Amino acid sequence: xxxxxxxxxxxxxxxxxxxxxxxxxxxxxxxxxxxxxxxxxxxxxxxxxxxxxxxxxxxxxxxxxxxxxxxxxxxxxxxxxxxxxxxxxxxxxxxxxxxxxxxxxxxxxxxxxxxxxxxxxxxxxxxxxxxxxxxxxxxxxxxxxxxxxxxxxxxxxxxxxxxxxxxxxxxxxxxxxxxxxxxxxxxxxxxxxxxxxxxxxxxxxxxxxxxxxxxxxxxxxxxxxxxxxxxxxxxxxxxxxxxxxxxxxxxxxxxxxxxxxxxxxxxxxxxxxxxxxxxxxxxxxxxxxxxxxxxxxxxxxxxxxxxxxxxxxxxxxxxxxxxxxxxxxxxxxxxxxxxxxxxxxxxxxxxxxxxxxxxxxxxxxxxxx
Length: 369
Ligand code: ZN
Ligand code: ZN
Known about the structure:
Elements lengths: L2 H4 L5 H14 L4 E4 L2 H8 L7 E4 L4 E6 L3 H8 L4 E5 L3 H10 L6 E5 L5 H9 L5 E5 L2 H6 L4 H24 L6 H14 L10 E4 L20 E6 L2 E2 L2 E2 L2 E7 L4 H20 L6 H14 L11 E3 L6 E5 L12 E4 L2 E4 L3 E4 L2 E6 L2 E4 L9 E2 L1
Parallel strand pairs: 1-5, 3-4, 5-6, 11-19
Antiparallel strand pairs: 1-2, 2-3, 7-8, 8-11, 9-10, 12-13, 14-17, 15-16, 17-18
Helix pairs in contact: 8-9, 10-11
Protein backbone atom coordinates (compact mmCIF):
# COMPACT_ATOMS: atom_id res chain seq x y z
CA UNK A 1 0.00 0.00 0.00
CA UNK A 2 1.44 3.38 -0.89
CA UNK A 3 2.20 6.04 1.68
CA UNK A 4 -0.47 8.21 0.12
CA UNK A 5 -3.18 5.63 0.72
CA UNK A 6 -2.39 5.34 4.42
CA UNK A 7 -1.69 8.98 5.15
CA UNK A 8 -4.25 11.30 3.56
CA UNK A 9 -1.85 14.26 3.51
CA UNK A 10 1.55 13.80 1.87
CA UNK A 11 3.87 15.25 4.50
CA UNK A 12 7.07 14.36 2.68
CA UNK A 13 7.61 17.71 0.91
CA UNK A 14 7.32 19.60 4.20
CA UNK A 15 9.62 17.14 5.97
CA UNK A 16 12.30 17.43 3.32
CA UNK A 17 11.93 21.23 3.27
CA UNK A 18 12.43 21.33 7.05
CA UNK A 19 15.46 19.07 6.68
CA UNK A 20 16.95 21.39 4.04
CA UNK A 21 16.50 24.33 6.43
CA UNK A 22 18.31 22.39 9.16
CA UNK A 23 21.13 21.52 6.77
CA UNK A 24 21.51 25.15 5.71
CA UNK A 25 21.72 26.19 9.37
CA UNK A 26 24.43 23.57 9.88
CA UNK A 27 26.32 24.86 6.83
CA UNK A 28 25.85 21.59 4.95
CA UNK A 29 25.05 21.24 1.26
CA UNK A 30 23.53 17.76 1.57
CA UNK A 31 22.81 14.88 3.93
CA UNK A 32 23.49 11.22 3.29
CA UNK A 33 20.73 9.40 5.19
CA UNK A 34 21.55 5.83 6.21
CA UNK A 35 19.06 5.19 9.05
CA UNK A 36 16.15 3.25 7.53
CA UNK A 37 13.46 4.84 9.76
CA UNK A 38 14.73 8.26 8.67
CA UNK A 39 14.54 7.19 5.03
CA UNK A 40 11.00 5.94 5.60
CA UNK A 41 10.02 9.19 7.30
CA UNK A 42 11.41 11.35 4.49
CA UNK A 43 10.38 9.28 1.45
CA UNK A 44 7.83 6.63 2.47
CA UNK A 45 10.17 3.78 1.48
CA UNK A 46 9.80 0.89 3.94
CA UNK A 47 12.35 -1.55 2.51
CA UNK A 48 15.33 -2.86 4.43
CA UNK A 49 18.12 -1.71 2.11
CA UNK A 50 18.54 1.91 1.03
CA UNK A 51 20.62 5.05 1.02
CA UNK A 52 19.12 8.50 0.59
CA UNK A 53 20.90 11.65 -0.52
CA UNK A 54 19.09 14.93 0.10
CA UNK A 55 20.57 17.95 -1.69
CA UNK A 56 19.11 21.46 -1.95
CA UNK A 57 17.35 20.52 -5.18
CA UNK A 58 16.88 16.77 -5.17
CA UNK A 59 16.14 13.62 -3.19
CA UNK A 60 17.85 10.52 -4.53
CA UNK A 61 17.17 7.06 -3.16
CA UNK A 62 19.35 4.03 -3.81
CA UNK A 63 18.10 0.50 -3.28
CA UNK A 64 18.54 -2.93 -4.84
CA UNK A 65 16.57 -5.00 -7.34
CA UNK A 66 14.51 -6.77 -4.65
CA UNK A 67 12.76 -3.48 -3.97
CA UNK A 68 12.36 -2.22 -7.53
CA UNK A 69 8.56 -2.53 -7.49
CA UNK A 70 8.13 -1.49 -3.85
CA UNK A 71 10.24 1.65 -4.12
CA UNK A 72 8.35 2.72 -7.22
CA UNK A 73 5.04 2.27 -5.42
CA UNK A 74 6.06 3.87 -2.13
CA UNK A 75 8.33 6.65 -3.33
CA UNK A 76 6.89 7.14 -6.79
CA UNK A 77 7.82 10.48 -8.27
CA UNK A 78 8.84 11.99 -4.96
CA UNK A 79 12.52 11.09 -5.23
CA UNK A 80 14.66 9.88 -8.07
CA UNK A 81 15.09 6.15 -7.72
CA UNK A 82 18.34 4.33 -8.43
CA UNK A 83 18.27 0.53 -8.48
CA UNK A 84 21.79 -0.76 -7.89
CA UNK A 85 22.77 -4.24 -8.95
CA UNK A 86 26.02 -4.66 -6.99
CA UNK A 87 26.41 -2.20 -4.11
CA UNK A 88 24.18 0.74 -3.17
CA UNK A 89 27.34 2.74 -2.71
CA UNK A 90 28.65 2.29 -6.23
CA UNK A 91 25.73 4.29 -7.61
CA UNK A 92 26.20 7.11 -5.13
CA UNK A 93 29.46 8.62 -6.37
CA UNK A 94 28.44 9.55 -9.93
CA UNK A 95 25.18 10.99 -8.60
CA UNK A 96 26.95 13.27 -6.11
CA UNK A 97 29.46 14.24 -8.78
CA UNK A 98 26.53 15.33 -10.92
CA UNK A 99 25.01 17.49 -8.15
CA UNK A 100 26.34 20.98 -8.73
CA UNK A 101 27.47 22.89 -5.64
CA UNK A 102 27.45 19.89 -3.30
CA UNK A 103 30.72 19.96 -1.37
CA UNK A 104 29.99 19.62 2.36
CA UNK A 105 27.91 16.51 3.02
CA UNK A 106 26.64 15.37 6.39
CA UNK A 107 26.45 11.71 7.30
CA UNK A 108 24.55 10.09 10.18
CA UNK A 109 27.30 9.17 12.62
CA UNK A 110 25.05 6.96 14.75
CA UNK A 111 23.97 4.96 11.69
CA UNK A 112 27.04 4.29 9.61
CA UNK A 113 29.19 1.18 9.81
CA UNK A 114 32.90 1.84 10.02
CA UNK A 115 33.24 -0.16 6.80
CA UNK A 116 30.96 2.33 5.06
CA UNK A 117 32.64 5.32 6.67
CA UNK A 118 35.84 4.07 5.06
CA UNK A 119 34.07 4.26 1.68
CA UNK A 120 33.39 7.96 2.28
CA UNK A 121 37.08 8.55 2.93
CA UNK A 122 38.19 6.49 -0.04
CA UNK A 123 35.75 6.58 -2.97
CA UNK A 124 34.20 9.78 -1.61
CA UNK A 125 37.47 11.54 -0.84
CA UNK A 126 36.76 14.52 -3.08
CA UNK A 127 33.88 15.73 -0.85
CA UNK A 128 33.96 17.03 2.73
CA UNK A 129 32.12 14.63 5.04
CA UNK A 130 30.76 15.98 8.34
CA UNK A 131 29.32 13.84 11.14
CA UNK A 132 25.79 14.76 12.22
CA UNK A 133 23.60 13.41 15.01
CA UNK A 134 19.83 13.49 15.42
CA UNK A 135 19.08 15.82 12.50
CA UNK A 136 16.14 13.83 11.12
CA UNK A 137 15.46 12.29 14.54
CA UNK A 138 14.77 15.75 15.97
CA UNK A 139 12.14 16.32 13.28
CA UNK A 140 10.61 12.88 13.87
CA UNK A 141 10.16 13.61 17.57
CA UNK A 142 7.24 15.94 16.82
CA UNK A 143 4.44 13.97 15.23
CA UNK A 144 1.84 15.27 12.81
CA UNK A 145 -1.81 14.30 13.34
CA UNK A 146 -1.63 11.39 10.89
CA UNK A 147 1.29 9.90 12.78
CA UNK A 148 -0.55 10.24 16.08
CA UNK A 149 -3.61 8.56 14.55
CA UNK A 150 -1.40 5.70 13.34
CA UNK A 151 0.13 5.27 16.81
CA UNK A 152 -3.41 5.19 18.21
CA UNK A 153 -4.17 2.26 15.91
CA UNK A 154 -1.05 0.50 17.18
CA UNK A 155 -2.19 1.17 20.76
CA UNK A 156 -5.63 -0.30 20.03
CA UNK A 157 -4.14 -3.50 18.62
CA UNK A 158 -1.87 -3.87 21.66
CA UNK A 159 -4.70 -3.30 24.13
CA UNK A 160 -7.04 -5.79 22.46
CA UNK A 161 -4.24 -8.38 22.34
CA UNK A 162 -3.61 -7.86 26.05
CA UNK A 163 -7.30 -8.25 26.83
CA UNK A 164 -7.40 -11.59 24.98
CA UNK A 165 -4.16 -12.76 26.59
CA UNK A 166 -5.28 -11.98 30.14
CA UNK A 167 -8.37 -14.12 29.56
CA UNK A 168 -6.02 -17.08 29.04
CA UNK A 169 -3.51 -16.31 31.80
CA UNK A 170 -3.31 -19.01 34.48
CA UNK A 171 -0.80 -20.76 36.72
CA UNK A 172 1.13 -23.53 34.97
CA UNK A 173 1.87 -21.59 31.79
CA UNK A 174 5.47 -20.93 30.91
CA UNK A 175 6.43 -17.27 30.38
CA UNK A 176 7.42 -18.00 26.77
CA UNK A 177 4.00 -19.58 26.19
CA UNK A 178 2.30 -16.43 27.51
CA UNK A 179 4.49 -14.35 25.18
CA UNK A 180 3.43 -16.67 22.37
CA UNK A 181 -0.25 -16.12 23.13
CA UNK A 182 0.28 -12.38 23.30
CA UNK A 183 2.23 -12.27 20.06
CA UNK A 184 -0.32 -14.51 18.33
CA UNK A 185 -3.07 -12.07 19.24
CA UNK A 186 -0.96 -9.06 18.24
CA UNK A 187 -0.44 -10.59 14.80
CA UNK A 188 -4.04 -11.78 14.55
CA UNK A 189 -5.23 -8.24 15.24
CA UNK A 190 -3.02 -6.80 12.53
CA UNK A 191 0.36 -5.99 14.04
CA UNK A 192 2.93 -6.00 11.22
CA UNK A 193 5.80 -6.88 13.51
CA UNK A 194 6.90 -6.70 17.13
CA UNK A 195 8.71 -3.52 18.18
CA UNK A 196 10.79 -5.72 20.53
CA UNK A 197 10.51 -9.29 21.86
CA UNK A 198 7.55 -9.18 24.22
CA UNK A 199 8.50 -9.20 27.88
CA UNK A 200 6.62 -11.60 30.15
CA UNK A 201 8.22 -11.68 33.59
CA UNK A 202 6.59 -13.53 36.47
CA UNK A 203 7.10 -13.78 40.21
CA UNK A 204 10.61 -12.71 41.26
CA UNK A 205 11.55 -12.25 37.60
CA UNK A 206 9.15 -9.28 37.43
CA UNK A 207 11.88 -7.41 39.33
CA UNK A 208 14.12 -7.57 36.24
CA UNK A 209 13.15 -4.43 34.32
CA UNK A 210 14.18 -5.81 30.93
CA UNK A 211 13.63 -9.53 31.40
CA UNK A 212 12.81 -11.50 28.30
CA UNK A 213 10.13 -14.16 28.58
CA UNK A 214 11.89 -17.20 30.00
CA UNK A 215 11.28 -20.78 31.12
CA UNK A 216 9.71 -19.93 34.44
CA UNK A 217 6.27 -21.43 34.97
CA UNK A 218 3.63 -19.05 36.35
CA UNK A 219 2.47 -19.74 39.90
CA UNK A 220 -0.58 -18.61 41.85
CA UNK A 221 0.16 -15.34 43.61
CA UNK A 222 2.73 -14.15 41.06
CA UNK A 223 3.03 -10.67 39.75
CA UNK A 224 3.05 -11.04 35.96
CA UNK A 225 4.55 -8.11 34.09
CA UNK A 226 3.77 -7.86 30.37
CA UNK A 227 5.61 -5.23 28.28
CA UNK A 228 5.03 -5.31 24.56
CA UNK A 229 3.76 -3.33 21.61
CA UNK A 230 2.21 -3.47 18.17
CA UNK A 231 3.30 -1.97 14.85
CA UNK A 232 0.85 -0.41 12.40
CA UNK A 233 2.02 1.25 9.16
CA UNK A 234 5.50 1.34 10.65
CA UNK A 235 4.53 3.07 13.91
CA UNK A 236 4.94 1.43 17.31
CA UNK A 237 2.97 1.32 20.52
CA UNK A 238 4.63 0.32 23.79
CA UNK A 239 2.55 -0.73 26.79
CA UNK A 240 3.18 -2.41 30.14
CA UNK A 241 0.67 -3.81 32.58
CA UNK A 242 1.40 -5.82 35.72
CA UNK A 243 -1.28 -8.18 37.05
CA UNK A 244 -1.51 -10.68 39.89
CA UNK A 245 -2.42 -14.32 39.38
CA UNK A 246 -5.10 -14.70 42.01
CA UNK A 247 -5.79 -12.47 45.01
CA UNK A 248 -3.07 -9.91 45.69
CA UNK A 249 -1.30 -9.71 49.03
CA UNK A 250 -1.20 -6.44 50.96
CA UNK A 251 2.47 -6.03 50.05
CA UNK A 252 1.63 -6.40 46.36
CA UNK A 253 -1.23 -3.90 46.66
CA UNK A 254 0.96 -1.36 48.43
CA UNK A 255 3.75 -1.55 45.89
CA UNK A 256 1.29 -1.41 43.01
CA UNK A 257 -0.47 1.63 44.44
CA UNK A 258 2.80 3.60 44.56
CA UNK A 259 3.53 2.88 40.88
CA UNK A 260 -0.04 3.61 39.86
CA UNK A 261 0.04 6.96 41.63
CA UNK A 262 3.45 7.82 40.10
CA UNK A 263 2.06 6.98 36.67
CA UNK A 264 -1.08 9.06 37.27
CA UNK A 265 0.90 12.05 38.51
CA UNK A 266 3.27 12.05 35.55
CA UNK A 267 0.48 11.43 33.01
CA UNK A 268 -1.58 14.18 34.57
CA UNK A 269 1.10 16.86 34.65
CA UNK A 270 3.51 16.30 31.75
CA UNK A 271 3.23 19.12 29.26
CA UNK A 272 4.99 20.87 26.40
CA UNK A 273 7.61 23.36 27.55
CA UNK A 274 8.64 21.20 30.49
CA UNK A 275 12.01 19.42 30.20
CA UNK A 276 12.23 15.64 30.00
CA UNK A 277 14.04 15.87 33.32
CA UNK A 278 11.16 17.72 34.96
CA UNK A 279 8.69 15.14 33.67
CA UNK A 280 10.86 12.33 35.02
CA UNK A 281 11.03 14.09 38.38
CA UNK A 282 7.23 14.10 38.79
CA UNK A 283 7.17 10.32 39.09
CA UNK A 284 10.61 9.97 40.65
CA UNK A 285 10.00 12.45 43.47
CA UNK A 286 6.82 10.63 44.44
CA UNK A 287 8.49 7.20 44.35
CA UNK A 288 11.42 8.64 46.34
CA UNK A 289 9.04 10.06 48.93
CA UNK A 290 7.43 6.63 49.28
CA UNK A 291 10.85 5.15 50.04
CA UNK A 292 11.44 3.30 46.77
CA UNK A 293 13.78 5.74 45.02
CA UNK A 294 16.56 3.17 44.69
CA UNK A 295 14.14 0.63 43.21
CA UNK A 296 13.17 2.89 40.26
CA UNK A 297 16.39 2.47 38.35
CA UNK A 298 15.39 3.49 34.84
CA UNK A 299 14.09 6.65 33.26
CA UNK A 300 10.42 7.62 33.13
CA UNK A 301 9.92 7.22 29.41
CA UNK A 302 10.92 7.74 25.79
CA UNK A 303 9.49 8.85 22.49
CA UNK A 304 7.76 6.31 20.25
CA UNK A 305 7.15 6.45 16.51
CA UNK A 306 8.85 4.63 13.65
CA UNK A 307 11.26 3.42 16.34
CA UNK A 308 10.07 2.14 19.69
CA UNK A 309 12.80 4.11 21.44
CA UNK A 310 13.31 7.53 19.92
CA UNK A 311 13.51 11.17 20.91
CA UNK A 312 12.66 12.65 23.32
CA UNK A 313 13.95 11.06 26.51
CA UNK A 314 12.24 11.54 29.84
CA UNK A 315 15.23 11.00 32.09
CA UNK A 316 17.27 12.58 34.87
CA UNK A 317 19.62 14.15 32.31
CA UNK A 318 17.17 15.27 29.58
CA UNK A 319 17.21 19.05 29.80
CA UNK A 320 15.65 19.85 26.40
CA UNK A 321 12.10 21.19 26.47
CA UNK A 322 9.28 18.89 25.37
CA UNK A 323 7.07 20.07 22.50
CA UNK A 324 3.45 19.65 21.47
CA UNK A 325 3.12 16.70 19.10
CA UNK A 326 5.66 14.54 20.90
CA UNK A 327 4.41 11.04 21.75
CA UNK A 328 6.09 9.56 24.79
CA UNK A 329 5.75 6.64 27.15
CA UNK A 330 5.14 7.16 30.86
CA UNK A 331 6.50 4.05 32.55
CA UNK A 332 7.44 4.30 36.19
CA UNK A 333 8.39 1.04 37.87
CA UNK A 334 9.55 -0.31 41.20
CA UNK A 335 11.64 -3.48 41.32
CA UNK A 336 12.35 -5.30 44.55
CA UNK A 337 15.13 -7.81 43.83
CA UNK A 338 14.20 -11.41 44.56
CA UNK A 339 10.60 -10.51 45.29
CA UNK A 340 8.95 -8.81 42.34
CA UNK A 341 8.31 -5.65 40.45
CA UNK A 342 5.58 -3.49 38.99
CA UNK A 343 5.65 -1.25 35.93
CA UNK A 344 2.69 0.59 34.40
CA UNK A 345 3.41 2.06 30.97
CA UNK A 346 1.13 4.32 28.97
CA UNK A 347 1.55 6.18 25.69
CA UNK A 348 0.82 9.91 25.78
CA UNK A 349 0.74 12.67 23.15
CA UNK A 350 1.59 16.19 24.27
CA UNK A 351 -0.83 18.82 22.98
CA UNK A 352 -0.74 22.62 22.92
CA UNK A 353 -2.61 22.84 26.18
CA UNK A 354 -1.79 19.61 27.97
CA UNK A 355 -1.71 16.00 26.93
CA UNK A 356 -3.90 13.12 25.82
CA UNK A 357 -3.30 9.63 27.18
CA UNK A 358 -3.61 7.29 24.18
CA UNK A 359 -3.74 4.07 26.19
CA UNK A 360 -7.01 3.27 27.89
CA UNK A 361 -6.40 -0.22 29.30
CA UNK A 362 -7.35 -0.24 33.01
CA UNK A 363 -4.55 0.79 35.33
CA UNK A 364 -5.93 -0.60 38.59
CA UNK A 365 -4.47 -3.84 39.90
CA UNK A 366 -6.09 -6.69 37.99
CA UNK A 367 -6.35 -9.93 39.98
CA UNK A 368 -6.77 -12.83 37.58
CA UNK A 369 -9.39 -15.18 38.99
ZN1 ZN B 1 7.51 -1.03 27.14
ZN1 ZN C 1 8.88 1.78 26.87
